[in-house]
Amino acid sequence: MPQNALKKFATQVNPDTLATVRGIAKAEGRQLQALIDEALTDLIEKRRQANPRAHVMAAYQASHEKYAGLYKKLAE
After folding, report:
1. Of 9, 31, 49, 66, which residue is the least packed, with the fewest Cβ within 10 Å?
2. How far is the C-alpha of 7 from the C-alpha of 3, rounded, in Å?
């Protein structure tokens, strides 16, 4: 499937939420599907950022080992 091809799906949503999103789409002059796509993309990115990258955690661990005493004093 080409990357820009769209796939239809059906779901259910709270009526107030749908009305609000439709209002946003109208106010911004955008299609509802564009806002839904943006919201799903944002959700995916948010979930990805919730898991720290391995190299970031390694740097944190190295820093903690080196500066544990300082961190402890700062916490006091």
Report:
1. 9
2. 11
DSSP letters along 12-64, please? ---HHHHHHHHHHHHHHT--HHHHHHHHHHHHHHHHHHHS--HHHHHHHHHHH
pLDDT of residue 49: 83
What is the pTM for the complete model shown?
0.59
- The answer to whether the beta carbons of residues 60 and 54 sit under 8 Å apart is no
Question: Is residue 4 included in any domain, yes or no?
Answer: no
Domain span at residue 62 reads 15-75
CA 47 to chain centre: 5
Question: Which pairs from 2-6 meet CB under 8 Å and 24+ separation?
Answer: 6/33
Domain count, the chain: 1
| Residue 3 placed within a domain | no
